Predict the 3D structure of the following.
Amino acid sequence: QVHVVESGGGLVQAGGSLRLSCAASGRTFSAYAMGWFRQAPGKEREFVAAISWSGGHTPYADSVKGRFTISRDNGKNTVYLQMNSLKPEDTAVYYCAAGVGSSSSVRDYDYWGQGTQVTVSS
């Protein structure tokens, strides 16, 4: 099993940056792909980015490509999401999740954190 906890959310002005962290527990963290998803009020949870266990595969949603970067440090059991050039439409609760493959589907992830709020003001 993997237990994940997100941190790093907050309030930022449009054009600003934030770095989210996802700390995971469990000896098998390095065997899992990790994903970031987000959910805005009244909307479904949507894929943001994922990273394979080795870090070699990093798919992104089109809406964040070129602005967000996902990375992982298996030695620290941590995944990061660097978010630059933030827009008001990036406002959402951001969730970290662990799964078998670096998929964009919510259904492919087994372990989820509680989420961290990101608010981008215009």
About this structure: The chain is about 0% helix and 50% strand.
